[in-house]
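Q: What does the assembly look like in three dimensions?
Context provided by user:
Components: three
Sequences:
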Amino acid sequence: MSGLDLFVLAMFALGIAGAFFTAFHPNILYASISLIATLGAVAGLYAGLGADFLAATQLIIYVGGILIVILFAVMMSENIYKKRFAAEAKKYILPSIVSIGLLALLFKLLFSADWGELSEISQSQDGVTLQMGQALSRPYALPFQYVAIVLLFGLIGAVVIARPHIGKKRK
Amino acid sequence: MSLDFLLHPTSYLGGVSGNLSAYLCFSAILFVFGLIAALSRRSTIGIFMGIELILNAAALNFVVFQVMKKDLAAQNWLHGHMFSLFIIILAAIEAAVALAIILRAFGSKGTINSDRISELKG
Amino acid sequence: MEVPNIIWMAAWIVLLPILSYFILCAVGNRLPRQGDWLSTGAIVGSFLLACGIFGEMISINDPNWLIQHSWTWLDLSSATQEWKLKVGIRLDNISAIMLLMVTLCASLIHLFSTGYMRDHHGKPEDGYRYTSFFSYLSLFTASMLGLVVSDNLFSLFVFWELMGLCSYLLIGFYRHKISAANASLKAFMTTRVGDTGLFIGLLALFGILGSFRFEDIYAGINAGAFDGQVFGMPAAFFIGLMIFIGTVGKSAQFPLQIWLPDAMEGPTPVSALIHAATMVSAGIYLVIRIFPILEFGHVLTIVAYVGAITAFFAAVLAVKQTDIKKVLAYSTLSQLGFMVLALGVGAHTPAFFHLITHAVFKACLFMSSGAVIYAMHHEQDMRHMGGLKKKLPITHAAMLIATLAIAGVPGFSGFASKDMILANVLGFGFYGDTGHILLPILAFSAAALTAFYMFRLIFMTFYGEPHDHHHYDEAHEVSWNMWLPLVILALFSFAAWYTGSVTGGLFGHGTDWFVNLTQAPALQYRQGAMSDHLKELAENVHHAHYPAMFLSLFVASCGILLAFLTYKTKTFSKEAMAARWPNFVHKLIDNLYYFDAFYIKVAIKKAFLPISKIFAVFDDKVIDRVAVDGWKDVAMVAKTSAGFVDDQIVDRAFVDGLGGATPVLVGASLRALQNGKVQRYMVFAVVALMALYLFLNLKEVL
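A: Here is the predicted structure of the complete assembly.
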């Protein structure tokens, strides 16, 4: 077993544990902290797959950006230390049954499919950042600009939505 | 690939970093936990976190296929990586808008319990 | 590859209104006149470009003229398998004529709206919403134009849905009126039923063919790509039927016709745009495009009967309406039925011909009615009108010409196209297979009724004594930007433009340029056995030509004469005429054949609500039992059953209390499927997804 294998296994374990607590932890604050673990594990897996740029992006945007926003939202909206959602455990029953059925279906699909030829993971020294940059500036130039515009409008929209007094006259 | 991977995990440990099914299983599990969170959390933020998990599972799959499948790996432009990148960017947008909506709903309703925010009811 | 200039012209036709939409959205309010000139200018620009394309087409004068170019939108091909999604522009005779018609009608409707959407002092109604109105109009027109130039069903579907959205926005434009809000929802939801069918058809098509392009579809038919089966049905039949369901929704055919009359709640220019020139035509246009699949899959008989039923029963409804716009709405239904019927008997060209002529004269009729309504200060009831000929001479002249056209009087465009349709139907159902004798009977009765109810409208509105002196005295002719469109459209309601020597001489070739040019495009792909039916039809039509012409003239003059005797000279008493019919006929008509009631009482209350209640019971009883035990259980059951009863009673009172009223259709359907908890729907979605997968792959999973 190589070092990479150990690392990947550790990431699997971390990711699944984090996902479990994200789904089931009664306290939303701890759930969001365990979400950090899962997202970090996915970043680790990206790195293990040789997608270094994506690993960095995942860390910066998800762990550094989105999660901070989530934590802020949790703290601003929930009285986290008083409110516990565990009392409504029965709400988990139906979704869990359905989801586990879906999981079984996915596994069945996964192991019965023919995935064809598999290639070795190439861990070159340069990584794929250069290749991704080229892809972003050539075939994906337009989609990239498009996403940038969507991001801009999304952020403007978020500001407009979050400010309760916008558009109304101040009294 | 067969169910052997689940029955005798140790015999496959040697190649886990290059095992397509292992990654796919992991992302399937991630997806299902995300689904459970999205379907059962009372708090709107919890639902949102579940959706983030689902998105991550999908993005990971794109990269895994790009790297592991021979005919895809031979391609120049790394389509799988690009899809993941766009998923991450769109997730960032989604986070901004969703959390703005959550804060606004909290401001006007005083709760983020998804069962209490039922304006859709006809 | 070099992209031909003409393709760029077609692209700009679509882009100009889209640009105007975005500019109006961003800064519309700050522009002088709130930007109505921008929207109008953009569509006039499109019109000029469309004229260019049309000129090119006419000068080439080739029935097989076709220029297309497509771009790869999504390329996910791997080394072993090609997987490309292409979108592009297709210009042939049909789309060039269609572009000209849509841009002409839309430009005139925009111009008309600059008058209609203002009050009598020239002030925009409803303040800043004036800008939104024009931005919606622009977006709507752009989507229609995009649909027309699409070379594939995928982008066609995108524009199709965009149009659905715009129709929702425009029909519900007077949002302070509850009836308008409900009508817009109803239109949206009803067309959605059809769109689901269309979407399923598209998926099946892509699964079989791997492409959405018309070019590949036509080639695939010859190559035998559709010989397989889908869900145990022949592939072409299934796909054709599903796509036709989309048309049934969009073009308001039986049995999804219920939304169109309600859609009259929108402003009148919207009615002219949606129900004459664009949205409802889109459905017919789609059928024209996929005509080869329909024929290959033997769907046409179903198509013909749907069309004939719609044409006749809508015409019957139109006879009893008193709202001027409702008459026109039912007449639109009926005329669309004619087109679908024509397509159903295999008469591709007459259907397209009628599509164009109908769009022109129906736009004229709607806008004339708009001018009347405007002059009467938003009075729509014909019983309060009368004698308006003196007050509105130009409107009267334009509306009379358009009415002569729709009634099928020789010399006007409607006669030329409707006569061709009737000849084909007669050839199909009488000279051909007499088993389908019902089709010509329904078609000719509908033609007679058309002439009758349209002249009834004219006589009730413009002739006789005024019934409401208050409005009558105030009425005066509308301003130039409202009567000019009427006059232009009325001019194009003469047959000479389409068949006569005027245009033939103008364009330098035979008299029947329209028919010659639109003959082949969709049909040239047919080979061998497929064309037998059409050959036979052509032969039968040959026999049927003169009888059909005399018959159609006869029924039209009967209708007009009857209307004249009843409503002008009052020789016949309309009360006596009404009394001749048994009571149940009146009840049937007054209740619109109980369609709305059926959808509410049977489809929704008996089917949807019980299913959702089963889920509710399962959820409340079974899940609760599992989760909660002992006294808690008892308490919970008591509580939920109390809630259940409450729900039941409230539900019943709500639904029954409002009876057959239209809004309930929307309300009840929403209520049945939704309990307001998003997560519950998501659970159902996941279950449905799994069920679908298991259903499709039953063998593999087991």
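Follow-up: The two ends of chain B are 49 Å apart (CA to CA).
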